[in-house]
Specification:
Helix 3 crosses helix 4. The relative contact order is 0.16. This protein starts with a helix and ends with a strand. With 184 residues, it is an alpha/beta fold.
Amino acid sequence: MSGSGMLFLRRLIRNPRQVSAIAPSSRFLARAMVRGLGPETGRVVEFGPGTGSLTKAILAAGVAPENLTLFELDPAFATALSDRFAGVRVVNGPADTAPDHVAEGVGAVISGLPLLSMPAPVCRAIVGSAFRILAPRAPFIQFTYGPIPSVPPDVIADFGLSVEQTAFVWANLPPARVHRFVRK
């Protein structure tokens, strides 16, 4: 097992509710999440990067390290991410504080957070923070293991969002759906 795999397992055992996954995101899910991103995207923010599976794909898509900011609540994951991804800014703090750390005009927010398992006010605050920093028509990209989008219908309506499922990834444990949320 790789070093990041062992870290994931240790953090899962220590705090399963916070990790809220049984395995790190697969490279197939990571590729589906970053489809359409590249150097022209500009600044990208990632919520809940964990061991960095999606981070690696964001960088591989051509986003420059200095244009990537990660929000990771778990201090062990945050330290590992800082060590692994030179030039990437890692904020060891909650995603709903993104507007305090990142200027508006972000080209995309990528989220691996388990929004469906969070209390409604926390989910609303996270989605709200994403749309406070996103440029007009820039996407909030989120995956879910469930059959419905991970942003609740009332939050979608209140923020005036449109949602599109862009992928269903069988090659992930468990299989996952990718959704893009954009302000109408």
